[in-house]
Amino acid sequence: MNTVTLTQILDAPQDKPILIAGPTASGKSDLALQIAQNCGGVIVNADALQVYNNWRILS
User: How many folded domains does the chain comprise?
Assistant: First the structure.
């Protein structure tokens, strides 16, 4: 598994979306907020049940 720092994310090209995934309470929301504040971006929250409505997955 790769770990990426906030600096690496902020230095990456701005023409691609950023996907943040991980287990509960791993800091995803905090990281997303930091990135959005530094880049002037927005946060799009998509729960697995919303994204995979017809898939049989546990969430």
Answer: 1
